[in-house]
Design brief:
rod-shaped, five-stranded antiparallel sheet, four-stranded antiparallel sheet, 4 helices, 9 strands, alpha+beta, binds zinc ion, single chain
Length: 213
């Protein structure tokens, strides 16, 4: 669950001296104030909106709005805490890093896939959308593991899975968890695919990845 939120904050920027307050109808001390809204996701990724500078009477809190540019040109540093201003940059950085790693992962996956496809070896594990092989699949996405049992000149014999998933992450998890070695993961009868059939499903992008020890 994502927690979104926002909070109005007030910063006291110093005394502006005394002057007559029209509301109190008396001489009052005035302060330079800044009101702003911090938006956040999970309280960590923050950004600021609605900055408003003003002077306010210390007693009734009424006063005049001030132009942000005029005030900020006189301030030595931003009165808004660093985390409130730059929290969003942290989020943007995380997203950028994830995108780079995602791209690297995709490219290494596709390099190993091409290499292994060209010269299959017993034990290679293909994560395949098997809907591509079926005449009338139950679903458009039926990801499962095909494990090379034997390699023939014109065809490859695979152990066929008995488990299917709607995305490639399901079979990946099974591989990491060592489930492939459990009895019944693969059906007893192998399936044989011709090299042409393998080339066709590859062209249809049905082969997600190939793993080799
Ligand atoms: Zn006042």
């Amino acid at each position: 669950m994502i927690v979104w939120g926002k909070k109005s904050k007030m910063a006291l920027l110093g005394s502006e001296g005394s002057k007559p307050c029209p509301v109190c109808e008396k001489e009052r001390p005035f302060n330079l104030m800044l009101q702003y809204t911090v938006h956040h996701i999970w309280y960590v990724f923050k950004w600021v909106s609605g900055k408003q500078y003003g002077t306010a009477c210390e007693v009734c809190q009424r006063g005049d709005k001030l132009d942000a540019k005029a005030v900020e040109s006189k301030l030595q540093k931003s009165p808004i805490p660093f985390g409130d201003r730059w929290g969003w940059a942290f989020l943007a950085g995380l997203i950028a890093i994830a995108a780079v790693f995602g791209a690297l992962d995709d490219s290494s996956r596709s390099t190993s896939r091409e290499t292994y496809l060209a010269a299959p070896r017993a034990g290679d594990r293909y994560i395949v959308n098997l809907a591509s092989l079926l005449q009338a699949p139950q679903s458009k996405y039926m990801y499962g593991v095909l494990r090379v049992r034997a390699v023939h000149p014109d065809s490859v014999e695979f152990d066929a899975p008995t488990f299917f998933y709607s995305s490639a992450s399901g079979p990946s998890k099974d591989m990491r968890a060592g489930k492939l070695d459990e009895p019944g993961y693969f059906s007893e009868k192998p399936i044989v695919l011709s090299r042409d059939q393998i080339a066709r499903i590859h062209q249809e992008h049905a082969i997600h990845s190939i793993d080799r020890f």
